[in-house]
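Weekly puzzle thread! Below is a chain. First person to post its structure in token form gets bragging rights.
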Amino acid sequence: MKRIAEKQIITWKDSPRRKPLIIRGARQVGKTWLVDNVLAKQFEDYVKIDLEKRRDLHPLFAENLDPGAILRHLELTAGRITPGRTLVFFDEIQACPRAIMALRYFYEEMPELHVVAAGSLLEFAFGEISVPVGRVQYLYMHPMTFYEYLLALGKETVAEYTLQAPETVAESIQQAVLTELRQYFFIGGMPECVKTFRNSGSMLASFQVQSEILDSYRDDFAKYLPRIDPLCLDAVFLNAAKSVGEQLKYTRLNAGHSGQMNRRAFDLLVKAKLLHKIPSCDPSGLPLGATANPKKFKASMLDIGLMQRLCQVPAKTELLQEDLLALYRGKLAEQFVAQELLAWHSSELFYWARAARSSNAEVDFLVVRQGTIYPVEVKSGAGGSMKSLHLMLEKYPNCPQGLVLYSGCRRALPEQKLLFLPLYCAAMIGDMRWGTE
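Winning reply:
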């Protein structure tokens, strides 16, 4: 498999300003795979310490965090560690929070040594320690994008079309890419699910893996979140998934618990990277986050495949829908766009909701491209009034054009300041954070 983070991690290795790297992301998105199969191959020697399995090594970090002393003990079981030749990888580092603290001293006292760490639920570990701010770097891993999924299936040519300007691509090819996207809606981007589908050709086998991953997340909750009612956490997780694209209220996420308890459960799921909070904001200027309203928000899930499995979307009937935006009432399409924007463009997402009372006007997403804000709507057709989009374009003249992602081919309506794009173009409508080569 090829991941778009490969270029970023190799750049880290070669950087003269390198600091210890922490790879962050939900469990099973490919963090360990990236180190084992990409980064480790750049070194003569590779020392991998799984701190969840090797709890016998936790005492090394209990008191003295001197990196020389830590390495001398590690060499007894791992072999010689030589700066410049050896990659040291602390996997599942959240299991030993003081090991995270030790990264500071590796940076200050042994900057020539390549040290990388990975873990899930790191935000919970950070709550127990003094985080080494300014002395580590971060790389965020996401589920596989549609582009990466196509590469994994051996469809390199189709993958490249997803990153090309649609006006340069024949309409028949645009429709062919959209046909591939229908399958991705159900397989999703969790690497083990994609691998299973690639090897077996069976959607049902992939669905089984999705169920296993969801079960493993619930096990994590029991392990790391003992003070939260698991029934509340499960209910909020399910109802947030069913409400993708809708403005949320904590009291409505779970009738069996208080709004305060639901909020705590929601915030923990966001911390665990299983949900992403999308606040509304005023698009009058940058940065968008400066005007974010934390009380008016939507949510997206970690992965579209996990979403459809958790919501028990009937794949057999839904796959017969001709319009991708008709699948699960358009929620899968909006989840897809959120997921692509997070992976390609920004660690934060925002949308616009009119502040006036008794008004439900809203635009699904806001993206920034070359310093300019563009409103983005996910719609089921090229018709319709687009009332909210027109209202926003009129209210905010700094937004020059509205982008509409739908199940058709590229179509420009310059008189209305609208550009219709195939749904898969979510990958290229904002400023990309890294290349794909």
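Puzzle host: Confirmed. Bonus trivia for everyone else. The mean pLDDT is 91.
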